[in-house]
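Posting this for the archive.
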Amino acid sequence: MSEPSGDVQYSEDGNYWWDGTEWQPVQSQDGSDGSQQSDPVVDLSQFPTIAALMQVGSTEEWLQYIGVDPSVLSPQ
């Protein structure tokens, strides 16, 4: 695979460059093509409901957290 040189067109996300025929992955500083990407880091402070849901252990705990008495939902 050749490397981009001179005036090269890059994809909008910057992960690929156009070689005149097809899109090629951009080589990272360590020489990899970035195909093994790590999971993105999510700032859960932007999603407090999801963060709270991840901290409870059961549906009953979640219902109590949001102010619902689980006993009123139980079948009779």
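The chain has a mean pLDDT of 78. The helical segments are 48-55, 59-65.
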